[in-house]
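Researcher: Before we compare anything, I want clean individual predictions. No alignment, no superposition, just each chain on its own. First chain goes here; please echo the sequence and then give the structure tokens.
Model: Echoing the first chain and its structure:
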Amino acid sequence: MKQIFRFFQKVAAGGDGRGYSVPAGRRIYAIGDVHGRADLLNDLLALIDQDNSKRSPAVKTLIFLGDLVDRGCQSAQVVQSTCQLQASDENIYVIKGNHEEAMLAALDGNLRAFKFFLMYGGAATLRSYNIPEKNIRVEALPDLLRTFISTIPPHHVDFLRHAIDFLEIGDYFFTHAGVRPGVSLSNQAAFDLRWIREPFLSHSRPFPKLIVHGHTPEEDVQIRSNRIGIDTGAFETGRLTAIGLENEDMWFVQT
């Protein structure tokens, strides 16, 4: 198992001077972009269980911030294990990332989306579903797409289709990529929630809630007064990160 990393502090006040909190009796763990690394996800879930067991009793909520698939070689395993987890616990939420969006568009028969999907790590996802390497050729795209559609288990497709765009708990807004400044949280476009970088990342003024997101990989957790980014590039770095939140406290658990 990987080494545990923890950081603990009171949640920083936003630009309006207030602190951020979650409702009493709840403990939240939000997990960044897994990208097909089932090995790291298994390690992180074990570390979360250890961390949770050392704390006082509370209702544990687990949130996946999207991009379960692509790049890593175990996307099918990640989808299967996350699907099983959610089926076993009503306090587990899965947010749809841009990679899931592209994958679902491909599975709807969109060849352009399928080509994009393959260019950005989707070929690894096909391999994880045991599609032979010799079949993964751009020049045979229509045939390859038909193979993919017929190979992926229907319950995996259904699971990904039912992933949510965002989740609000207490003073926190959880989504994959971020939000568009100047637009109310209730009116955010799904495209922005899954794809935005700028002007979100450089925006320095407070949002109505503290945004917890993935999508943009960084060497370490990005803590700002208005957002916290927890995509630590697990596929390449081996560091898969979760943020823990309870009352006004936050900490991080990382492989």
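Researcher: Okay. Second chain, same rules.
Model: Second chain and its structure:
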Amino acid sequence: MGVEVLERIRNLNERELLSYWIRGEYEEAETYWKLAERAKELGLPAEVYETFKQLGDESKEHGDELYQIYRREYGEELVEVNVPNVEALNVLGKFWKVEDLGDVLRIALESEKLAETIYRKLAGECRDEKLRSIYLRLADIERGHYERLKALANKMGVELDVEKECEKESS
């Protein structure tokens, strides 16, 4: 799945890419807010709910920042891009199967790792300095989300081996 999406992303122009990432950040925000609610439904610790809610809020802020850049260059209306969001696709397919804290955190960590990997690959291939800088910034944001989720898992005593699982999936 990741390779096909990466190929499709590579073929987008700057306007399409910005539209894609803006929508992606808003979808990621919605996903984290849904995970927060799911954590609450499962009776998980309040800190889990708060972390997911904060990650959702941050994703919305990132979407807003990208949208400001977009509006300066292209106006209000986003262009339609027919490429699935890598994070939402990865998480939402498994979302309702979530049964416990380990599942919740594992799914979110996999999603953040996948997004970071794709952003870094795109940055490495990009010739446009402005776009490369956006890709690297987004990769760093995803890495920060990953680290926060991993720290939460450690604090909650959840055993995770996500790095090895992510490597297995990408090979």
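Researcher: What stands out in the second chain?
Model: The chain is about 80% helix and 0% strand. Additionally, The first helix runs from residue 2 to 10.
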